[in-house]
Design brief:
Chains A, B: Residues 383-410 form a coiled coil. Chains A, B: Residues 20-88 form the HTH gntR-type domain. Chains A, B: One of its GO terms (molecular function) is pyridoxal phosphate binding. Two copies of one chain form a homodimer. Chain A has three domains: 2-85, Arc Repressor Mutant, subunit A (Orthogonal Bundle), CATH 1.10.10.10; 109-141 and 387-495, Aspartate Aminotransferase, domain 1 (Alpha-Beta Complex), CATH 3.90.1150; 146-383, Type I PLP-dependent aspartate aminotransferase-like (Major domain) (Aspartate Aminotransferase, domain 2), CATH 3.40.640.10. Helix content of chain A is 41%, strand content 13%. Chain A contains 16 helices and 16 strands. Chain A has helices at 2-7, 22-35, 48-55, 59-71, 113-125, 145-158, 173-183, 200-212, 227-235, 253-262, 285-298, 355-366, 371-382, 385-411, 437-446, 476-495; strands at 75-78, 82-85, 109-110, 131-132, 196-199, 218-223, 239-246, 250-251, 266-271, 302-305, 330-335, 346-350, 426-430, 449-450, 452-453, 466-470. In chain A, strand 7 (239-246) and strand 8 (250-251) form a beta hairpin. In chain A, helix 2 packs across helix 4, helix 6 (145-158) crosses helix 13 (371-382) and helix 8 (200-212) packs across helix 12. The longest helix of chain A is centred in the last third of the chain and has 27 residues, at 385-411. Chain A is globular and about 70 Å long. Chain A starts with a helix and ends with a helix. The interface between A and B is large, with 56 and 56 residues.
Chain lengths: 498, 498
């Protein structure tokens, strides 16, 4: 159907009403055709004259459409040959090292990450204008600002007491019903009552930890590990046992199996199965099945933190660990923060066997979530706008990642390694062995760029020669240029350590 | 000025534009005159004819205005004499017992309140249609639904990315600046940076407790104590030491001083100084000063939970404990939940000496609050609508309490005692000694009325012959009738225990 729009002579009256200018509508048609594979890398684009005739538009409109597509790195101009659908550069760098399973951490450690992170954050704060290549959300213009604003206006007009009437303890029932329906996509079969809305995914993970541990207990986590989880563990007085994770398949299941034998004091396992932060790995289904089985057999709660699932590059997003859960071993935590709206703090939890206790803890800790954002979300999820948004977001993130991979591959020094992530926005980059990311992140701040040093992602300092990069904005040229500057700086530092 | 509106001949053109119907605008003028004391109890209201002439309105409008005032118990019709400003009935019951300071609880107890509350809540859930005289907020129509809805619409139009852009870690800076200015009213001198926004007041109290205690520690609380605090203590693994509180002056400071000597393991004190829940007491300034000094000298953090302050009956609302704090001993927690909008989960905390640690815990636990409700609140607080709302809310609550006090005094059995609260919405009623509120609350549920049994307010079962009542709605006749039914039932049960 996209093809017919592109090939037949479209009269202006055929076009759908759209608030976008015409050149942008046309660029979007081609963007979709490229995204869906109707137009393939290397395909020749119509000539300007053919484009003008086909769509009945002026030269100015045609030029502007091509300019947008070129800016977004969807097409390339080849001198005297015309425009072609862009061939994504292949990353020329070797894949990141697989973890060395022979050097498991000896003992679970009380996390001391907060002081490390505080020091990094206060360094960041001295450079408020730095270009942020360290964030964990996409840029605001990749989220459906208009549609959510309209949903909020509708919700407020329809239900004027949203702000003044208290909500349901577990969260808005209509929203929970929609979420339960959508969870089938992740392979999760639950009802609305099996869901408790939380203040973002991080509250969900905190509640899960509080439900199944006591201060002093040991919790097995992935290594490298999302620093927010290390902070949560520290604030709850828990010890972290870091289990190696592979940049392609995530947590090393057999290393966990071994640790469960050698550390009988492990009281919970926390895993990000889909698009692990910072690795960008997606755990294969066989690993997911084995991990759930392992925890069930050991009688140890498996806390699944799954906020990135829908950002994975695939026709069908991967399933959650919870899909393999048969006896309530898995506590599933997620949120709409990364995929839909960083300004909304709407997460949810299914507590498995510990659901009632988690409900009690949530009530005692912060009562119900606000009504308004929940109703806005329900309004939005009821339409097909959410699916449309996700498709667009995934396409844009893929494009950003391809550009970024190319820039990294061509500008970082020999000895740099990375495994292309399976979706999302993170690049976990292994710098040459003798480079320190602690030195590097400060040096690049002086150049006006913020990156996350690897030291934030472990309590053991094992990732000091890693950095986490993420795409900052839809201004791909700006990101490109920033990454190239990072690469040049890394090359200088690698050539002259200290 | 109010008087001039009432006495001069007002031409319709003089009236301010108002979306309210005319009869209601006029009723509101008289309501304000009565609330402000321009018209005093017993004053004669104008005759219908005089009212029609004075305001240039029809008989229908005049009649309707008087009907509204009569319904709201602001005026009474005396047969053949006309209408008079109502004389509030004096409560005829003896004051509630002062606490017996000789029988201090012997040892701090691990709170086991959750199972008690769960059982009560699940009993409540079997009677979903019961008239709720057990709530902790005023009825929705006492909150400024329209104004908040409009503020939300304005905020969304002005800042369309409110839902999609992440907010500031500590909360919206503009809102915090306004709150800091307003805090001067409570005697609190802080800057915007000294404020962290939280998900309601209960998250603030939880964060305060987490910042200054370890599981197993003892926390001194008032007795009777808000059950939500007992639940929070239980969920954090803390022991509660219940210190007696007086229905007129709140926490017995000398009992606390004694307990600090005998229980060196007390790690924090939690107090609701203004309109204690459930007592409705307001701590005198001298007590506040002494309490802060006592805790400062003992080096023990004093957690102030102050969500009801602005509902106190007084020309000038009472000050917070924090006003007497000179060295950061007091952690001040409050929210807008009870006074402005039960649907919004917007609280804030000043952590005194522990402010940075509380900031870390808040970040690790739930990140920043949502932007939207904060910006709505800032919009609303910037106008004088908040002060207007508070005056109206206090007037209406006072009226409700007067009606309720009269109904209790005339219908509850001998041996019932209560001390009129100093504002807010709670009545803490001491039933005759041999009555059990556990039996009573179930019996009245069968009659379709929900009240809170005293057992929820202590871990020691010391308030089994108490109940907490609150005004359910602006339908004062309905509340009246419900209270009278409660009284009759109590009288029957007192006459025939078991």
């Amino acid at each position: 159907m996209t093809q017919s729009i592109l090939t037949r002579q479209a009269a202006p009256a055929d076009r759908l009403p759209d608030s976008q200018p015409l050149y942008r509508q046309l660029a979007d048609q081609y963007r979709r055709a490229i995204g869906s594979g109707v137009l393939r890398p290397g395909d020749r684009m119509p000539s300007m004259r053919a484009f003008m005739q086909r769509h009945g538009v002026s030269l100015a409109t045609a030029t502007e459409s091509y300019r947008v597509l070129e800016r977004d790195a969807l097409i390339d101009a080849r001198p005297r040959a015309g425009y072609f659908v862009r061939v994504p550069p292949t990353a020329a760098l070797p894949a990141a090292s697989e973890p060395d399973l022979a050097t498991l951490p000896g003992a679970a450690q009380f996390v001391g990450i907060h002081s490390v992170i505080s020091s990094i954050v206060s360094t960041f704060q001295r450079y408020p204008d730095a270009l942020n290549l360290g964030g964990a959300t996409a840029s605001p213009d990749l989220y459906p600002t208009d549609a959510l604003q309209k949903a909020a206006l509708r919700a407020l007009r329809k239900r004027p007491t949203l702000l003044t009437a208290a909500g349901h303890d577990q969260g808005d029932p209509a929203l929970r019903a929609i979420i339960a329906r959508r969870a089938l996509d992740a392979g999760i079969q639950i009802g609305a009552d099996d869901i408790i809305m939380t203040h973002g995914g991080i509250e969900a993970v905190n509640l899960a930890l509080r439900a199944v541990t006591q201060p002093g207990d040991t919790v097995a986590v992935e290594s490298p590990c999302f620093f927010g989880l290390l902070q949560a563990l520290e604030s709850l007085g828990l010890r972290a046992l870091e289990i190696p994770a592979s940049p392609t398949t995530g947590l090393a299941i057999e290393a966990l199996a071994f640790a469960l034998h050698t550390h009988p004091d492990i009281k919970a396992v926390v895993v990000v199965p889909n698009l692990q932060n910072p690795l960008g790995s997606v755990m294969p289904d066989t690993h997911k099945a084995r991990l759930v089985e392992l925890c069930a057999q050991a009688g140890i709660p498996l806390i699944e933190d799954d906020p990135y699932r829908e950002l994975a590059d695939a026709a069908q997003p991967p399933r959650s660990l919870k899909a393999w859960d048969t006896d309530g071993t898995v506590i599933h935590c997620t949120s709409f923060n990364k995929v839909l709206a960083p300004g909304m703090r709407v997460g949810w939890i299914n507590g498995g066997r510990w659901h009632p206790r988690i409900g009690m803890l949530k009530f005692a800790q912060s009562r119900h979530n606000e009504q308004l954002s929940q109703v806005v979300l329900a309004e939005f999820l009821e339409t097909n706008a959410y699916e449309r948004h996700l498709r667009r977001l995934r396409d844009r993130l893929r494009l950003q990642r391809e550009r970024m991979a190319a820039a990294i591959a061509t500008s970082f020094p020999d000895g740099t390694r990375f495994t292309p992530p399976r979706g999302g926005m993170f690049f976990w980059i292994e710098l040459p062995r003798d480079m320190s990311s602690t030195v590097f992140f400060k040096a690049v701040l002086d150049e006006g760029i913020r990156v996350m040093p690897g030291t934030m992602f472990s309590n053991g300092g094992r990732f000091d020669h890693f950095i986490r990069l993420s795409s900052p904005s839809t201004d791909l040229d700006l990101a490109d240029e920033a990454v190239r500057r990072l690469g040049r700086l890394a090359a200088r530092m690698a050539a002259h350590p200290d």
